[in-house]
Amino acid sequence: MGMGSRALVLLVTALLSATVQAGYVWVPSAPPQEIDAKLARLQTDAAAHKSAVAAGKRAAFFCSNCHGESGVSALDNIPNLAGQNAIFLLNQIDKFGDGRRNDDFMSGLVKVLKPEERFNIAVFYASQQVPPTPAQNSAQAAAGGKHFSRACVGCHGAKGHGSREIARLAGQRAGYLVTALTNFRLGKGSHADPRMTSVAKKLSVAEIAALAAYLGTLP
Description:
The protein is mostly helical. It folds into two domains: about 5-125, Cytochrome c-like domain (Cytochrome Bc1 Complex, Chain D, domain 2), CATH 1.10.760; about 140-215, Cytochrome c-like domain (Cytochrome Bc1 Complex, Chain D, domain 2, Orthogonal Bundle).
């Protein structure tokens, strides 16, 4: 992201934060059963799905500066959003909005999104493809595959695609994964999930790097 784009996003974030402080009221997303029913309808209505994807792309305009136009980040420390489960994405967006997750940048942007916009953004990113990244060190990636089979498959699935509650790791940016796993290992900040911390604490620095290298190669 260029300096001009970064400055524009920071300005917009400041303006949005001012809007929130001026009295914007966070509106929660619909109950889970309503979201499930809405997603199910989209799966059987191609025109409605296409419309939701288009609306989500428009609503995610400012997200593209960091996460890429289709949810594939150009920055190693910023996560890909493409290919994530829509429910998982919507839950994460809602956590930033209601304070369960906190980030000065993300929270300021998310808090002014209406429930329909958040839903459509999740549908948009879930519909996008994330390309795998060829391993720079094949031996390291192979070692990471063994660590993944031992420690991660039970929750994230054999292909690393996750679920509605668990993040997709396949094709994820290596730098982001290293940072996230390190934070889980330390129980730091928003990465203080007991399940992940218990796994990450058993990983060495080299094993974390190998896992990140392997996961990036998965389609």
